[in-house]
Task: inverse folding
């Protein structure tokens, strides 16, 4: 897996985050931290959309089509991975509001780990099927 495989998804998600934080609003430190805490959800959803696009294009470009069972299994696994990212991100944001910064940091790190795992799986899904 080359770093270039992650460059486009990574640059798009960073552009989204930057535009969200700077366009037509003034942000403070608390707003920025909250946005950082829930950012893994954005990463995970973008990764799922890339995975879907890769599945779609690989079906078109290969001589044999991908079995429906494999596509559905992949979709259910993706959703199963996405739900913990959402839960962990919400819990980290809530911990930040309650001034439990250590807990918020640990939960945010877990959320980023899960989201980046989804990204790695989504970008490399073509080679798995």
Result:
């Amino acid at each position: 897996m080359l770093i270039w495989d992650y460059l486009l998804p990574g640059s798009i998600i960073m552009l989204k985050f930057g535009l969200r934080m700077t366009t037509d609003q003034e942000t403070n430190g608390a707003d920025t931290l909250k946005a950082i805490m829930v950012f893994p959800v954005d990463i995970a959803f973008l990764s799922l959309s890339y995975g879907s696009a890769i599945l779609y294009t690989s079906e078109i470009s290969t001589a044999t089509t991908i079995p429906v069972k494999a596509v559905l299994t992949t979709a259910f696994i993706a959703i199963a991975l996405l739900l913990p990212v959402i839960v962990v991100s919400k819990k980290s944001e809530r911990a930040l509001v309650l001034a439990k910064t250590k807990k918020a940091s640990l939960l945010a790190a877990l959320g980023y780990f899960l989201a980046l795992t989804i990204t790695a799986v989504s970008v490399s899904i073509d080679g798995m099927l």
Summary: The longest helix spans residues 29-61.
